[in-house]
Structure formats: C-alpha cells, structure tokens
Amino acid sequence: MTPIEHRVSLDDTFVTYYEWGTTQAGRPSVIFFHATGFHARCWDEVIRQVGDIHAFAVDAVGHGRSGKPAPPRSWQRYGQDVITLARQLNLSGAIAVGHSMGGNMITRAAAELPDAFSALLLVDPVILPLEQYTEASYHAADHPILRRRSQWDSPAAMVARFKDREPFSRWHPHVLRDYAEHGLICEGEGCTLACDPWVEAHIYASTRLAINADIYDVIPRVHTPVRILRSDMGLATSTENLSLSPTAPDVAARFVTARDVSFAQYTHLIAMEAPDVIALHLNDMLEGIRP
C-alpha cells in the first residue's frame, strides 16, 4: 500500500500527488482532495479499507509537499488547480472524493470537466448556506488558527500530544498517525508543519466572501451523481469551530442528482473520525458505477 509520489506543474507553482495501484478495466479510478490544513496522506486509511483500488490523493497548493506560493489563493483558484490536474492526468470517468474545502474544489472542477468525473463524494463540503456569503473583505491576521503550534520534535511527539485531546481523540488512530507523519517536514533536529498556519488563516478567513457565493452558480452545472456525507451536530456560523458542519442542509437539492446522508455521531472531521464510513460509501459507489 505504499504509493508512488508524483509532481506536476501549475502555471505558478506545482502540485504533489500520490498514486496507489493501476488502472483497472471496468472500475473507475478515484481521486481524493483533503480539507484545509490537512494533506493527501490523510486518505491513507480510507484507501487501505477500500482495498483493490486505483487512486490518486492530492496535496493542495500550500499544503503537504505541494508548492507554497505566498497566500492568498482564492477558492476559485483552488478549483482551477483541480481542473488543471485532471487534464494533466487525463482523467475520464473518475470518482472524485473531497472533504471540506476539497468538496468545494471538486464541485467546481466537475462543472467544467463533465467527462473527467463519473460521480462525486462530498464529505461535509464547504458549501455554506447562501445567506452566509456576505463579507466584502477579510483579515487573516485576526484568525485564531495563527496560534497553532507549528514546530515539533517529531511526528511521534505530535501524536503523543494530540491523541487524548479533542478533536484528535475522536480520530481513528491510523489517521492521526498518518496526519502527523506526513503533515510535518522534518529536517535536522526538528519538524515544521507542512501547511503554514498563514495559509490556513487566509483560507478560513476568506470563506464567507460574497464572491464565493459563485459556487451556487456552479452547482446546477454538475450533472454527475453526487453523494453528500455531512455532520448533523449543528451548522457552523464561523470558521473557528471545526466540529460543526459548514454544509448548507439543503445543498443536495441544489444539484441535478444528489443524495444527502447525515450523521449525528460525527463532527465536521468525518474523514478523520470514520474512515470506515467513507470507505463503505465509496465502495458502494464503485460497485454502482461498474459496467
């Protein structure tokens, strides 16, 4: 289950992605996109549980081992990054899985490249209720994510610090291990977060910009089947509580074909807490799309 690491160029930087397995006749490939502040290898446990799969998992720009141009990078630009990568990979009929920001990204891409994707699995995507897109500007320097600790002695030290603390205590232990092991860049005697808190701050702080309401113009242009998995613990009204869901409860009705599945027992970080649930739904979709 050790993936192959690849790198492709964008117009202003590069993207790193990982590949498991090889193309299978009669079975679509799967491409995964992570949430803000995370990285491609947070999907490892889902991929392990799905088993026989040809999969790609992508480090978004500013995250993981991808390039790190100075922020900000707009939500529209992140969607364009998916489009560029999908074209370079020559994707056709793939299932795209996106958690949080990743769900917003793949929705934008699917509207532009209908042949690239046969279905979307949106895991608590950042598609806010339309009325929440009201901000004219933002101030990243005010976001509390900037208080996040960025220096660590080792991945093991990070795991030891987090494993008994919310929200990490809810996570599957393998996901926490993968998050720490691949979310730090270790050189010399110390390790640094692969995603600078400034990148996170800009993304979070810009979420409610009025311009980002354009996602509601994008959604009706997505004609592939969509399955939405979302937390039902409450609707987020800010980006400071990462446990509550940012997903508009009625968003499934906005798509041409979508199914809504809600969970009272999971937070917004469903992908970290319940990789088995993600794998179950993904396998169901894989079976349904077989010829």
Task: Describe the structure in brief.
By secondary structure, the chain is of the alpha/beta class. It has nine helices and eleven strands.
- What gross morphology would you assign? globular
Report the order of strands and helices.
EEEHEHEHEEHHEEHHEEHH
Low-confidence stretches: none
Overall pLDDT metric: 96
Q: Biggest sheet, in brief? A: 8 strands, mixed
The rounded distance between the terminal residues' Cα atoms is 26 Å
What percent of residues are in strands? Answer: 15-25%
- Proper CATH architecture: 3-Layer(aba) Sandwich
Helical residue percent band:
25-40%
Q: CATH H-level name... which superfamily?
A: Alpha/Beta hydrolase fold, catalytic domain
Structural domains: how many: 1
Number of strands: 11
Strand order of the largest sheet: 1-2-4-3-5-6-10-11
CATH topology: Rossmann fold
Q: What top-tier CATH class fits best?
A: Alpha Beta
Number of continuous helical runs: 9
Q: Given the helix and strand composition, which structural class is it? A: alpha/beta
Radius of gyration: 18 Å
Structure description:
The protein is globular. The two termini are 26 Å apart. An eight-stranded mixed sheet has the order 1-2-4-3-5-6-10-11, sandwiched between helices. Helix 2 (75-88) packs across helix 3 (101-112) and helix 4 (155-162) crosses helix 5 (173-183). The model has no long low-confidence stretch (mean pLDDT 96). The longest helix has 15 residues, at 275-289. The protein has helices at residues 44-50, 75-88, 101-112, 155-162, 173-183, 197-206, 215-218, 270-273, 275-289; strands at 4-9, 14-20, 30-33, 55-59, 94-99, 117-123, 151-152, 184-187, 190-193, 226-231, 258-263. The protein has nine helices and eleven strands. The protein has a single domain, classed as Alpha/Beta hydrolase fold, catalytic domain (Rossmann fold).
